[in-house]
Design goal:
alpha/beta, six-stranded mixed beta sheet, four-stranded parallel beta sheet, 16 helices, 13 strands, globular, binds ligand F0G
Length: about 425
């Protein structure tokens, strides 16, 4: 673990590592930056497999030299990470058929962050953020959330024995996520308003009453999420892919992965920096619109999409995300709800599965291939951010509701009578 200071990605102002603020005086969320980092080679990380302590087994703390120094006694870990990287390219798909063909790429990896302890990539940020809260002796933590952040924070706060407040938009959180948040014991405020209002409220109120805010505005969250990229690179023997594709909502994750890829290259862990593609839902696309205008303005929209995890109109990590796109020679794309649900059905049918927002990365790849931005032989990794079981309503609606949309993989259940002969005949028709 490494000593650090804070730096504003907007105005460049710096703050000592002992400062407890998340935002700069100018309002931008702060970044963590490192002084002289200890030399770490690939062998340091490769040598840690097989360790027994929770910290050794964590797919976050394994990369601790790339993370802020936090006293080991404060670390709260499940452990998280160690998620699968499924090779599904059309050229080689190890039994997971359909996804590479759907996206028309020969070489494709799906980094499945839905395999984290609470079912999303948020756990990687939360182990670092909650450990920091413990180190600072915070008595309470808070977040606003479209569901996954709240599930993750509620779980880690329960483990740490800290009071947890979550602000969620009423009626706009998928059932699996709401169930987790309640079950883990968070004090849950269903805000009559959208995610962007919940975000504004939690920031105002938590600052006023001294509760530690653990949205991705918090730089420790971003640092933990960097390990998605480190683990993916390690799984590929540190041979960086050409592209990494990430669903984008509040823009914390694209910022984190971009920072990680640049830092991994600077540390000599990889020979190149992959290009990033951020993919937004067309109904929640301020970042896509900003990209199309050369990032000359910061934009907001009234968000609407079936992918409730990324139903966000005023993303907080805008400046950091612009930097990540620029530093990786990246692109921003958008996909419709129908494209998201079709891509999800393809990932699900392969036997892997993900929640709707996650499938934006796969839908985005298909689109970027069609447009010719990505070539058929480029090596691509799509990040699947959340688990299939997070949003059962969306999945069941795809398969069972008749909405008039084209649903090429809809798999309706058959209702049968208590008649063995009829059932035998029906099964035979599939053979
Ligand atoms: N995918 C999933 C499954 C998410 O839950 C989120 C964000 C994203 C993608 C987008 O990541 O916000 O860093 O750009 N979920 C947050 C939450 C907002 O509250 O759970 P981002």
């Amino acid at each position: 673990m490494t000593t650090y200071t804070f730096e504003c990605p907007g105005c460049g102002r710096r703050y000592p590592g002992t400062d407890t603020r998340n935002r700069c005086e100018c309002g931008e969320p702060l970044d963590i930056i490192y002084g002289k980092q200890p030399h770490v080679g690939r062998e340091t990380f490769d040598g840690r497999f097989g360790g027994r302590s929770a910290v050794e087994r964590s797919g976050v703390w394994r990369y601790r030299e790339m993370l802020p120094a936090i006293s080991e006694a404060s670390i709260v870990t499940r452990p998280e990470g160690n998620t699968g990287l499924y090779m599904v390219g059309a050229g080689e798909h190890g039994g997971f058929s359909g996804v590479g063909e759907y996206c028309a790429v020969e070489w494709l990896g799906l980094k499945h962050e839905g395999e984290n302890p609470t079912g999303s990539f948020k756990d990687r940020g939360m182990t670092v953020g909650v450990s920091r809260a413990v180190e600072m002796e915070s008595v309470a933590v808070a977040c606003a959330s479209t569901g996954n952040t709240s599930a993750s924070l509620a779980s880690y706060a329960a483990q740490a024995g800290i009071t947890c407040f979550v602000f969620i938009p009423e009626g706009n959180v998928a059932l699996g996520k709401l169930a987790q948040t309640l079950a883990y014991g968070a004090i849950t405020l269903q805000v009559r308003g959208d995610f962007d209002r919940a975000m504004a409220l939690v920031q105002q109120v938590s600052a006023e009453i001294g509760v530690y805010l653990l949205n991705s505005v918090n730089p420790f969250r971003i640092e933990g999420q960097k390990t998605i990229a480190y683990e993916m690179l390690q799984q590929l023997g540190w041979d960086a892919p050409d592209w990494v594709i990430v669903p984008a909502g509040n823009l914390g994750n694209i910022s984190a992965i971009g920072k990680a890829l640049v830092e991994a290259h600077a540390a000599g862990l990889t020979g190149k920096v992959p290009r990033l593609a951020a993919v937004q839902a067309a109904g929640a696309n301020p970042f896509y619109q900003g990209y199309a205008k050369g990032f000359t303005q910061r934009l907001e929209v009234a968000a609407d999409t079936v992918a409730t995890a990324i139903k966000i109109g005023a993303p907080v990590s805008w400046t950091r995300a612009v930097r990540s796109v620029r530093e990786t020679n990246g692109v921003v794309s958008q996909v419709t709800d129908q494209e998201i649900m079709e891509a999800k059905a393809v990932v699900d049918r392969a036997g892997i599965g993900c929640e709707p927002a996650s499938a934006a990365s796969v839908a985005g790849l298909r689109k970027l291939r069609e447009e010719g931005t990505i070539g058929a032989n480029e090596r691509v990794v799509c990040v699947l951010t959340g688990n299939l079981m997070k949003d059962p309503e969306a999945t069941v609606a795809y398969h069972m509701d008749d909405t008039g949309e084209v649903k090429s993989l809809a798999n309706r259940p058959e209702v049968v009578d208590d008649e063995p002969d009829e059932i035998r005949e029906m099964l035979a028709s599939y053979l």
